Amino acid sequence: MTHAPPALPRLHLLEEVADRYRLSLIGLQRRARAKGFTHIKIGKKRYLTDEQVLSLLSEATVTSAEHSKREQDLAATAERIARRRRRPAAA
Q: What's the pTM value of the predicted model, to 2 decimals?
């Protein structure tokens, strides 16, 4: 009975991840040095596995609540402008 060797994870260079997802490479490098996210360092190169890339992207993803807050602010501003226009002009 032979045992299959464990599957090695697919590695992505930090530079490639930054380029692919349009993230700041310098910002990612600083966070990696400060241990802001998990990564693999081989020599002077830093790599991410598929799971680590997904984790990094989920941390960087803006939630829809932020987007809806902005929409609410824009709607409130539009309402204020409409109310100002409805006021009768001073005589």
A: 0.58
3-state secondary structure of 15: helix
DSSP string covering 20-72:
HTT--HHHHHHHHHTT-S--EEETTEEEEEHHHHHHHHHHHPPPHHHHHHHHH
User: What values do phi and psi take at 89, rounded to 5?
Assistant: -70, 145
The answer to whether 11 and 46 are in contact (CB under 8 A) is no
Which H helix or E strand runs over 13?
strand 11-13
14: exposed, middle or buried (Cβ count in 10 Å: 0-12, 13-18, 19+):
buried
Cα first-last separation, the chain: 98
Q: What is the mean pLDDT of each run of 10 residues along the chain (91 residues)?
A: 79 93 90 85 91 86 68 86 74 56
